[in-house]
Amino acid sequence: MAKILAYDLDLLVNDLTWSYKNLLDCKIYTDWRYKINHIRGKYLVIRCNCPKQYVPVVLKWLRINNVNYDSLSLNPDMPDFQEKPVVAVDMDGTLTQEVCWNEDQCKNAKPSKLIHNLISSKDLFIVLWTARQENLIPASLEWLERHKVPFQAISKKKMAATLYVDDKTVNPVPDKAKRLAKKLLSI
Q: Which of 2, 13, 43, 88 has its CA 20 to 30 A from that of 160?
């Protein structure tokens, strides 16, 4: 079980008049960055209610300001604290049958069979874990929505997770991983 903390993006931006259009021009509250970057033993989610097209801007702002977070949630109603297993699911070759290098490929990718096995559960915190370029994230979010893929957050970085679901995974403890996967996913 992971202890998941969620912080609103609004708390981090040091500008009362900020918008997603001018976010890259805004500074971060130093006190909040210090607090967030010194949280240990917790899974940290930055919560925002931004339109899909601004997700790359938010991810870039977090990176530029050295915010040490695990994932980004687009659900403004996500609780401030919860305890759940974190399941990180890769997109290319895992949720999709092929790798996507451009927006058209992202929008038209064929779903893999895993998509039907991924369950929407109140007992899991599902994070889409991807290495896709930031400019492809809006098209990826549209694809996920169209295919009704359940998830709570998205991440472009390595994070702590209870289980990683990835086409390129090599697990040194395969029996334990299989048992955990069967418990957490309907496979």
A: 13
Residue pair 159/127 in contact by the 8 Å Cβ criterion: yes
Q: Indicate yes or no: pTM above 0.90.
A: no
Measure the CA–CA gap between 58 and 48, rounded to whole angstroms.
Answer: 9
Q: Kindly report the length of the chain.
A: 187
* 174 Cβ contact list (under 8 Å, min separation 6): none
Convert the pLDDT of each residue in 6-60 to its tens digit. 999 999 999 999 999 999 999 999 888 888 878 888 899 999 999 999 999 999 9
- Any domain includes 185: no
Structural domain boundaries, residue 51: 2-169
Type of residue numbered 25:
D
Total domains in the chain come to 1
Residue keyed to tokens 């202890």: 3
Residue 161, phi then psi, degrees to nearest 5:
-145, 150
Report in angstroms the alpha-carbon separations of 93 from 112, 159, 167.
8, 20, 6
